[in-house]
Amino acid sequence: MPAIVVLLMWPLIEIALFVVVGGAIGLWWTLLIVVGTGIGGVVLLRRLGLSNATRLRGEMARMRDPVGAVGDGILKALAALLLILPGFLTDALGLLLLFSPVRSALISAASRKMAVVSMQSDQPARRSDGIVIDGEFVEVEADGPKSPMPKDRPSGWTRH
To answer: Which of 50, 56, 101, 134 has the maximum number of C-beta atoms within 10 A of its C-beta?
Structure first.
């Protein structure tokens, strides 16, 4: 029930903040702030896209727990989206999420409730000297592979 109340009260709070802030600083400054934070959110969201994917890929390649990288990327994207939405409350929450200590606190609180159990990599195993050994395998049945040739005829593969 509290989530419904928050969703119903959110637009009313935003409207009240528009009236109060607009009355204090004027219409044009209010519009400039709303449009400016929206543009800032779009720029931030565009910049985050590739960097988050690169950071996550790096964490996975080092076989580290990706919760921190994923959480940080999600919270930065959420901050950008909150900045894009018009309103002073959403802008304040978006700006708050841009601070690293706030994101770290939220990530640590969430990571206490969830954890990575196991990780596997599809990258080839590397030796300690840096040489990659790539190989293929074929599963062989217990009674051996089925030969399409009858056993009484030579297969042509060997000399008899």
So the answer is: 56
